[in-house]
Amino acid sequence: MAEAHQAVAFQFTITPEGIDLQLSYQALNQIYLSGVRSWKKRVSRMKNRVIKGVYPASPSSWLFVAIAILATMYMQSDPSMGLISKIQQHLPLRYTCGAQGQTMLSALVFSTLLWLSLILTLRLCLKLLLSYHRWMFELHGKVSNTTKVWVSLLRLFSRRKPLLYSYQTSLPHLPVPAIKDTLSRYLESVRPLLTDQELKRMTDLANDFESTLGNRLQRYLKLKALWATNYVSDWWEEYIYLRGRGPIMVNSNYYGMDFLYVTPTTVQAARAGNTITALLLYRRKVNKEELTPVRNIPLCAAQCERMFNTTRTPGAETDVLQHWLDSDFVVVYHRGRYFRLWVYRGGRLLSPRELEHQIQSILDDPSPPFPGEEKLGALTAGDRCPWAQMRKQFFSSGVNRRSLDAIERAAFFVTLDDEEQGMKGDDPAGNLDRYAKSLLHGKCYDRWFDKSFSIVIYKNGKNGLNAEHSWADAPTVAHLWEYTLATDAFHLGYTQDGHCKGEVERSLPPPQRLAWDIPPELQAQVCRSLAVAQALAADVDCHVFPFREFGKGRIKKCRVSPDAFIQISLQLAHYRDRGGFCLTYEASMTRLFREGRTETVRSCSSESCTFVKALEGREVITSHGDAQLVTFFKVKQPESSTFFILKISGASLHFLMWVKKPGEPGCEMKLMVTFVSSQVADDGYGVSYIIVGEDMINFHVSSKYSCSETDSRRFGVQLRKALQDIMALLSGDPKGSSKGSAQVQPK
C-alpha cells in the first residue's frame, strides 16, 4: 500500500472541526517535475520546427538581412526599388505610427519577405543538387569533374549542422519511370528464366499491356505523383504489409542479434537495465532531432518518426499503425505476467542501476499469471482477423482495455526470457541456429509482435530484438540497434561483478502488474492462434554460419565489389542446389527520395547466368587474367505479387565494432550483429549476409521444412563452396576449388 499512498498528491477528511487537508509535497513535486519535462519537450519541438523550417539558412540570418536593408536605407539608398514605399502605403498602422516608425516597419516586412525568398531559393537549389544521382555510377578512382563540382556545392549548402528532419523538404520526389522502360526492365529480368518461346509470349503480353491498360494506369500513377509526397510508399505500407491477413510473426517481422562472441554481462537484470537505458537515450536523440540524416549524402528520415511509442493494431480488412508522441513507461513480460515499468521519476530518466533494480523485482516476483494471461501474446502471432475480432469484443472496455492500452502505448516491449541463448556450449553452430529461431518467434506467445519492436533479454545476459516491418525497413532499426549495443557495452558499462553502474533511489514505486479478465471464449481463441503460430514456427528451417575463410579485404584485392562477389556466389550456390536459376529479390532502399522505402535489385541476370554456366562447365576459364566476374544489377520497380525463390537482404546493414579483449591489451575482438527476415516463397530461400570487417562474412539462411526441395544447411554448404570456387578463380589459385556440387546429408 505504500506506493498507493505515495501516488496521492493530497487527501482530505471531514471532521467536526472542519476539513482536514493533507498535502503530499513529494507527490506534488513529482507532478511539477513531470510538467516541467513535458513543457521542455514542447519548447524543444517548437525550436526544432523553426530551425528545420528555414534550413539551409538559419533563424539568425533574418537579423543579418534586416540589418543589411536598414543599413542601406540609412545611407539613403533604396535596395527594394520602391517596394518598401508600396508596403508602407498598405500598412494597417500607417495612421498610428510616425513616419520613421512606418518606414522602419516597412523595411522589416520587406526584409522578412526577402529572407523567405532567399530560403526558398536555397532550398530549390539544394533539391536540384540532391536530384543528381550519377555519382552512383562513377568508377572507383575515376570521379568525373561534374561529380566533383556537385560534391563541393553540396558541402557548401550543407555546411550548417542539420537536424534529423532538416533535409525532408529538400529531398526530391521519387520519379515515375516510363512504362516502356518498366516493361523493358521486367523482360530483361525474366529473360534468363524463360525459353525463347516463353520469352516471345511474355514480350507479346507486355506489348499488349503497354498499348491498352498500361498507359491508362500510367496516367493515374503520374496524377498521383503530382500530389503525393511519394507515389509508392503509402501503397507499399498498406498493401505489402498492413492488408496481410496472415500471421506477421515469421512472415513479416524480422530479428536482430546480440554480439556473437562477447556478452558484456551475464546478469539478466543488469543487461536489461543498460539496454533499456540505451534505447531511451536513442529516443531522446530522435525527439531532439540530434541524429544526423547524412550518410555521405542526405537520406530521408521519415521512418524514424514511428520508431517508439508505436503499435500495429489489427483490423477486419487492414491493420492500422498507431503512434503516440511520448510514453513514460515500457511493458515487461516475464513468466506469463505483464508489468508496466515507469522509466521516468520526477521528470528524469531512471539510471541503469535503478532500472536493473526494477527489473530484478519483476524477476523475483513469485505471483502466478492470471487465468489465460500467460499465452495471451499468441493473439499477435496468429492470423490477424481473429485477433481483430477478439480485440473489438473483449478489449474495448474495463480492465482489459486499460492493460492493452498500456502495452500499445508503451515506448517498446521487453521480454525477460527464462532460457539461455547464444553461440555457446559444445554445439555452437546448432545453438546459433536455435538462438536465431528464438529471436524470430520465441515460444509464439512471449513476444508482442504488434509493437514497433520488442527486445528480448535472456537468462544468461544475451539479448536480441524482434521488429515489426510495416513502419520502417531494417536499416532504420539496424542503426537503432547498433547504437544500443555500442552504448550498452562501451558507454554505460558494468561494474566488475556485472551490475549496472550508479545508485538506486529506494523510494521508487515497484513495477505495476497489468490485470486481465480473460473469459473462456477468449482463451479458446488464444489456443487457436497459438496453434497456428506454432505450426508456422515449427516449419522454419534457420541456419546461421560465419564464413571465416576470407572477407571483403581479399575480395577487394581482386578488384571486385564485395556485394557483387557475394551475389554471384549466391547465384552459383542456388544453381548447384536446385539445378537452375530463379527470380531473385535483393532489397535496396530508396531513401535518397522523400519518404522512400524499398526497391528491388534483380541480381539474377543473363550475364550472371552465363557466368555460372561457364564456371560449372569450365568452358571459358583459361587464366586469372582472362577470368572476369560479370555482375550487372538492374534496379526494378517494387513487386506487388510475384514470389521470389531467392530473397537476399542485408547489403546496407554492414557495420563492425572493435573492443579490447579483457586481459589482452594488444588484441582486438570482432563483434557481429545481424538483422534477418525469412524467405518470401514457400519453396525458396531467404538469405541475409553481413560483411564483418576484412576477413569474415556472416550468413543467415532460412527455408521451410515442409518443402522437400530446400534445406538451409545444404544451401549453406553450397554457398561456402561457391565462395571458395569463385575466389580461387579470381585469385588464380586452384587449391580448394573443384567442379560440381558439395555433398551434404539430406534433411
From TrEMBL:
Where's the Carnitine O-palmitoyltransferase N-terminal domain? 1-47
GO MF annotation: an example: carnitine O-palmitoyltransferase activity
| Annotated membrane topology | Multi-pass membrane protein
Q: Name one GO biological process term.
A: fatty acid beta-oxidation
Q: What is its EC number?
A: 2.3.1.21
* UniProt catalytic activity: 4,8-dimethylnonanoyl-CoA + (R)-carnitine = O-4,8-dimethylnonanoyl-(R)-carnitine + CoA; (R)-carnitine + hexadecanoyl-CoA = O-hexadecanoyl-(R)-carnitine + CoA
In the UniProt record, which is one GO cellular component term? mitochondrial outer membrane
What the entry lists under InterPro entries is as follows:
Carn_acyl_trans (IPR000542), Carn_acyl_trans_N (IPR042572), CAT-like_dom_sf (IPR023213), Cho/carn_acyl_trans (IPR039551), Cho/carn_acyl_trans_2 (IPR042231), CPT_N (IPR032476)
Keywords on record: Acyltransferase, Fatty acid metabolism, Lipid metabolism, Membrane, Mitochondrion, Transferase, Transmembrane, Transmembrane helix, Transport
Q: In which pathway does it act?
A: Lipid metabolism; fatty acid beta-oxidation
Cell location: Mitochondrion outer membrane
Its transmembrane ranges are 54-75
Choline/carnitine acyltransferase domain location, by residue?
Answer: 174-618, 670-720
Q: Coiled-coil regions in this chain?
A: none
Q: Check the UniProt entry and state the signal peptide residues, or none.
A: none
According to UniProt, the name of this protein is: carnitine O-palmitoyltransferase
